[in-house]
């Protein structure tokens, strides 16, 4: 593993991306319930497919924890079919609904690490809720400072030789939390900006010219073997 960024340079990357792309206003959703449901539905699919599923849930009055808990599982599955793995996700939504109504509903999390960790652990104990989904729920629905790491984040970190061949979620998450201001807005935007960058420039085959982070690619271009694809 190589860590080449101090906190100042890490924040400068955030500033470059924000200057280039602006505020992403992510995660879309009118209520915390909708945001949490979206976090489950987006597993292994595109957001476009999730949007269709969310719209169907709205039409069926299923963007409500109590209604999800009481609805037949096949009704939920029919509504979210566009998101894929709809049988599994229907089951996960019911589990999450029970958690929300018994543990998480109406919780106000103070900015105390022990309380945040306890709530996070309770989410991770749920079937089908992994670290990325749990942290998305905490950051976007509960608005507490946890950094969300996804495949896009790892792609940028690898190509810029910040983390080389490191896949451990917790190690990367803690690195961001230790080297950025403890600011919910920064965590929110940084995650969303990584997604934007990977959809615009840092695709599976990257297009480095004109990238907001192009000046950070000097090492990459001089040492092509560090790239995931040798196309710099």
Average pLDDT, rounded to a whole number, is 87
Label the overall shape: globular
Strand content: under 5%
The parts where pLDDT drops under 50 for at least 5 residues are 222-232
Named CATH architecture of the largest domain: Orthogonal Bundle
Structural class: mainly alpha
The helix content, as a percent range, equals: 55-70%
Q: Over all CA atoms, what is the radius of gyration?
A: 19 Å
CATH class of the largest domain: Mainly Alpha
| Through-space gap between termini | 21 Å
Overview of the molecule:
Helices cover about 60% and strands about 0% of the residues. It is globular, with a radius of gyration of 19 Å. It folds into 2 domains: about 5-25 and about 150-225, Endonuclease Iii, domain 2 (Orthogonal Bundle), CATH 1.10.1670; about 30-140, Hypothetical protein, domain 2 (Endonuclease III, domain 1), CATH 1.10.340. The two termini are about 20 Å apart. The chain has helices at about 5-20, 30-40, 45-60, 65-70, 75-80, 85-105, 115-125, 130-140, 150-160, 170-180, 185-200, 220. It contains 12 helices and no strands. The protein is an all-alpha fold.
Briefly, what is this?
By secondary structure, this protein is mainly α.
